[in-house]
Amino acid sequence: MNNPVMHWQILSKQPDALEKFYSSLFGWQVNSDNPLGYKTVKTGSKSGIDGGIWPIAPNEGHSMVQLFVQVEDVKAYLDKAKNLGGTVVIPPQVLPGGDEMAVLVDPDGIPFAIFKSEKYFPG
Amino acid sequence: MPSRKELSLDEFQVISEWYHSAILELTKIRGFRTDTRWIAKQLDLSPEHVNIAIQRLLRLGFLEMKRREEWLDRSPGVVVPMEVLPEPAQKNIYKQAHELSHLLIEKSPMGAQLHGHAVLALGREQLPEILDLYERFQEKLSKLIEAHPQKDAVYQLIFSLCPLTRPNEEANKKENKEKHLE
């Protein structure tokens, strides 16, 4: 299996403001009707990928964009990443929607997520 | 006394904001739902607040999303001893707990609450012994609660013993003088 980037996620201190901003700017559809209240973003285009918006606390670092890479075995890729110099931020978790996800930081300090999804994403 | 250690921002937030413990305790009650909207409703918080708290708990390894419908409290019993915090931070945490109690007293009928209140004359040197007694009580209480198979609510327990009077310096001086003369 290749490991495609399937999803982007904006970590934001103002998720509601960004929802309004991007939906007004690009006409993206934002929906948070899922168990985590996760703001899924559908661009409505056949090309490119969809994403989401997730809150961070005002005193917790910078707002940023994270990439979500699909893997067939979250634990195996977590170990592989650790051997290559990555560090674990959030160990594997099963989200209420059934996807398995872990968050890591690459050797340059950039956080990213790996996930395994039966369907596709997230919540 | 435990030595001071550097607390991470996550650790500090978890011990200073009540809702982190409340989310962990909520995972143990009957009918718990792995749904931040439901959790937010139970605790009178916004889903965003809950999601931020959940991220902290996940980063610290205190919460595990084991299955779609099962989240587990993986926190150690006492996250960080209060003594590692500077005095203003400790005071702030206890003040917040009391402020929360004010709200909680109003929110539910008296029949759903338990209170104890007493004004006592005591010897200040008894404080460590009293704390020890309270810790043993808390241990017994935890055992009693753990044994119950059908938990259906999360409660806040506060134990506070604060001096109502100023230190009686004159009496102390007199006592010390008498001891000295002996």
Defining traits:
heterodimer, A: alpha+beta, B: 182 residues, mainly alpha, two-stranded antiparallel ribbon, 7 helices, 51% helix
Folded structure, characterized:
The complex is a heterodimer of chains A (123) and B (182). By secondary structure, chain A is an alpha+beta fold. Chain A is built from 2 helices and 8 strands, in the order E-H-E-E-E-E-H-E-E-E. An 8-stranded mixed sheet of chain A has the order 2-3-4-1-5-8-7-6. The mean pLDDT of chain A is 93. Chain B is 51% helix and 5% strand. Chain B has a two-stranded antiparallel ribbon with strand order 1-2. In chain B, helix 3 packs across helix 4. Chain B starts with 8 loop residues before the first helix and ends with a helix. The mean pLDDT of chain B is 89. Classes of the chains: A alpha+beta (123), B mainly alpha (182). Chains A and B meet through strand 6 of A and helix 3, helix 4 and strand 1 of B.
- Contiguous low-pLDDT stretches of chain A (5 residues minimum) are none
How would you classify the helix and strand content of chain B by structural class? mainly alpha
Largest interface: A-B, 20 and 22 residues
Please identify the structural class of chain A as seen in this structure.
alpha+beta
Shape verdict of chain A: globular
Number of H- or I-type helical stretches of chain A:
2
Strand order of the largest sheet of chain B: 1-2
Q: What value does the average pLDDT of chain B take?
A: 89
What percentage of the residues of chain A does DSSP assign to strands (E)? 35-45%
Helix count of chain B? 7
Order of H and E elements of chain B: HHHHEEHHH
